[in-house]
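User: LOB domain-containing protein, Eutrema salsugineum:
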Amino acid sequence: MEAFGDNFGPGPCAVCTTRNKRCSRNCEFAAYFPSELQDEFESASELFGTQNIIRMMRRARVGQRSMLALCILMEGVAWIHDPVQGGFGMMRRLLWEIKLREAYLCELKAIIKSEK
Ligand SMILES: [Zn+2]
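Assistant: Predicted structure for LOB domain-containing protein:
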């Protein structure tokens, strides 16, 4: 999986903005937390803490950093939408939706079968 690529936004990355640091052209976080994802990063930062995010990103292998960054951002957003259950609540809702769709699909298959 690729990071957000080289064509990320012109502004400083979300990590440098949050830390009030100057974002250099070869900033280690710019590919993973571009300026367009500032709001998402701030949510994640409230949840995990900026220093912990930096620590996690530095400890992860290079090939795993994109997935880690996405997970960090998604978890931050999940806690905004569901401050009680966070990502777990999001997962429960999605599982419920899958079950609902499966039940509907079964119903449709039964109707189709009865009309043959
Ligand atoms: Zn930066």
